[in-house]
Amino acid sequence: MAFDYDLFTIGAGSGGVRATRIAAGFGAKAAVAEEYRAGGTCVIRGCVPKKLMVYGSRIGFDFEDARGFGWDARATHDWATLIRHKDEEIARLEGLYRKGLDGAGATIIDERAVLTGPNEIHLVKSNRTVTARTILLAVGASPHRAACVGDHLAITSNEMFHLKERPEHIVIVGAGYIALEFATIMRGYGSAVTVVHYAPEILRGFDRECATHLHGELAKRGITFVMDASVIGIREENGRKDVGLSTGEVLVADQVMFATGRWPNTRNLGLEAAGVKTNAKGAIEIDAYSRTNVPHIYAVGDVTDRHNLTPVAIREGHAFAETVFNNNPIAVDHADIPTAIFTTPEFASVGLTEEAARAAHGDVHIYKAKYRPMRATISHRDEQTLMKLIVNGADNRVLGVHMVGADAGEIIQMSGIAVKMKATKADFDATIALHPSAAEEFVLMKTRSA
């Protein structure tokens, strides 16, 4: 049977674009359909614009610290200028994504695409059907909105990037990394921020000691936490929002944002028509090579709900193209993936948490450093950095590296190499410190704390 395309990708996010570009480079006749904008969550409404806003939000704290160093620093902030410049940069990056696809010889189709059969894709806007030998689903995920009375009055992270003005007070529902990142972003720009979370602790799945430490550091920066509470209703009155909590308390805010998880974008994608299986959450089920139960249909990125991180989607997309179009089967290794929460201060980690290490290995040695960072000694900011090594008692291998503090993401990225190489505590000890730096603490820890 002759097909219109060797590869048809639905979704031009990081994973879909990488897969399509690499496959086209191997000689495949490839196309990618995108109903919104090329770049996906990360470039358009996720990590990139968020990190730009993080950088800007920290400048406010820098002005506060500057006085301790002798600077008479005064400044005002214009929200509209921030949003305009952010939008200009996102448009530039989207252009680069398109240029990369064009350069590889791939076709970009700017409309919604849905499956109508195992090898058929319907293009909704142009009302036409095309066929493909191989189909890749890379449609990502979307913010989940917690159901309550008046939930339509709340926004999600998608809308946060397009607010016309900065809210004086914002309530953020949730305490995962997206919620906490936006909490510190908005606090840095001067908003009053209240985080509401249904559980007693923030950041489920992260090292407990580090998460608790971050909780305290964020509170020091003026973020209010209401724990063990849920939003049961939102009502708008006189331009502001009354936010009713399960505790009986009512918060009054200018804006409410839900950050209560993300769900795969598999609804109305035509998976039933193609026979593609999903799990209870709606995520597409795949094997180690990103193949679904339909042999020629694959899926990568957040729509599979494995590790929902941009670099993971990129690696999966590249591995897919190598496997299918270069006769080089690659199964992505999802172990020891570094991750960072770009709060202020940052929290980054790689490898096992203390809890997971003890459950898996039993005999675990803990090394820690907790100190006031050098910058804070002159700025007089009440801040504590926490650094932590998790070591296997049986063979001295470093199982996890965790840090809460400035530049944690940059430091943990390099620590990730050591963890991936199965470095031991002795390897860390044998490394000469780079002084004065924060990172040197990881090679200076000599005394076990547990």
Which percent range fits the helix content? 25-40%
Corresponding CATH superfamily of the largest domain: FAD/NAD(P)-binding domain
Number of domains: 3
The end-to-end distance, rounded to whole angstroms, is: 65 Å
Please write the CATH class name of the largest domain.
Answer: Alpha Beta
Question: What is the count of helical runs?
Answer: 14
Low-confidence stretches: none
CATH topology of the largest domain: FAD/NAD(P)-binding domain
CATH architecture of the largest domain: 3-Layer(bba) Sandwich
CA radius of gyration is: 24 Å
Spatial shape: globular
Query: How many distinct beta strands?
Result: 21
What is the residue-averaged pLDDT? 96
Report the sheet-strand fraction: 15-25%
The assembly state of the depicted protein chains is single chain
The major beta sheet can be summarized as: 7 strands, mixed
